[in-house]
């Protein structure tokens, strides 16, 4: 079994969460991490679980205009400089009827605003015919550019472990 974790990240916070999720997944299955700009356009039968995450921008997934705004606010280059998860999902194809998925996002902890990139990702994955294994999960940053709120990396690892455990084949 193999998991593919695809992420979009502006300032590196979502990237760190994706890496932690993959570490948790790797306790029970092979896990590969791909920044959305280098993610495959087709997910084949070798992938059992597709995990997709990105930052919440304007109550949903980023778009070109919100990525441009993020770039203007950044002190350095963005992690994801090209297309975002929204554009990647619009062109994604899969060949496995058994493919399962999970979605996550990063978002500002306070104030808690409505909307979620994770929920929007989950909705797009369902439209592609990919079954959701768990509800979307949000991880929190303390400000627009971060850093991650205390404990979020460990929570992401645990979420990854929990996802992997749900796919574990019982010993016979």
What features would you describe in this structure?
The chain is an alpha/beta fold. 33% of the residues lie in helices and 23% in strands. It is built from five helices and eight strands, in the order E-H-E-E-E-H-H-E-E-H-E-E-H. It has helices spanning 13-25, 64-73, 85-91, 117-127, 152-167, and strands at residues 2-7, 30-35, 42-43, 49-55, 93-94, 100-108, 131-132, 137-141. The strands form two sheets. Strands 1, 2, 4, 6, 7 and 8 form a six-stranded parallel beta sheet that branches. Helix 1 packs parallel to helix 5. The longest helix is centred in the last third of the chain and has 16 residues, at 152-167. The two termini are 17 Å apart. The relative contact order is 0.23. The mean pLDDT is 93.
Please outline the helices and strands.
Blueprint: E1 2-7, H1 13-25, E2 30-35, E3 42-43, E4 49-55, H2 64-73, H3 85-91, E5 93-94, E6 100-108, H4 117-127, E7 131-132, E8 137-141, H5 152-167
Parallel strand pairs: 1-2, 1-4, 3-5, 4-6, 6-7, 6-8
List keywords for this structure.
172 residues, 23% strand, single chain, alpha/beta, six-stranded parallel beta sheet, two-stranded parallel ribbon
Outline of the structure:
The protein has 172 residues and is an alpha/beta fold. Helix content is 33%, strand content 23%.
Question: What proportion of the residues is helical, as a percent range?
Answer: 25-40%
Low-confidence stretches: none
Strand residue content: 15-25%
- Round the Cα radius of gyration to an integer and report it: 15 Å
Order of helices and strands: EHEEEHHEEHEEH
Number of strands: 8
Distance between the termini: 17 Å
Average pLDDT works out at 93
Structural class: alpha/beta
Helical element count?
5
For the sheet with most strands, the description reads:
6 strands, parallel
What is the approximate shape? globular
Quaternary class:
single chain
């Amino acid at each position: 079994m193999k998991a593919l974790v695809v992420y979009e990240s502006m300032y590196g916070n979502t990237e760190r969460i994706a890496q932690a999720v993959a570490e948790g997944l790797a306790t029970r299955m092979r896990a590969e991490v791909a920044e959305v700009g280098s993610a495959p356009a087709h997910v084949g039968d070798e992938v059992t679980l597709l995990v997709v995450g990105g930052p919440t921008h304007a109550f949903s997934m980023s778009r070109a205009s919100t990525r441009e705004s993020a770039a203007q606010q950044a002190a350095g280059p963005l992690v994801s400089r090209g297309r975002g998860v929204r554009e990647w999902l619009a062109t994604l194809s899969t060949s496995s009827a058994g493919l399962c998925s999970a979605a996550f996002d990063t978002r500002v902890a306070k104030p808690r605003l409505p909307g979620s990139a994770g929920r929007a990702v989950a909705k797009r994955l369902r439209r592609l015919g990919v079954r959701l294994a768990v509800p979307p999960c949000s991880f929190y940053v303390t400000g627009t550019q971060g850093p991650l709120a205390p404990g979020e990396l460990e929570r992401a690892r645990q979420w990854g472990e929990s996802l992997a455990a749900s796919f574990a084949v019982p010993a016979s």
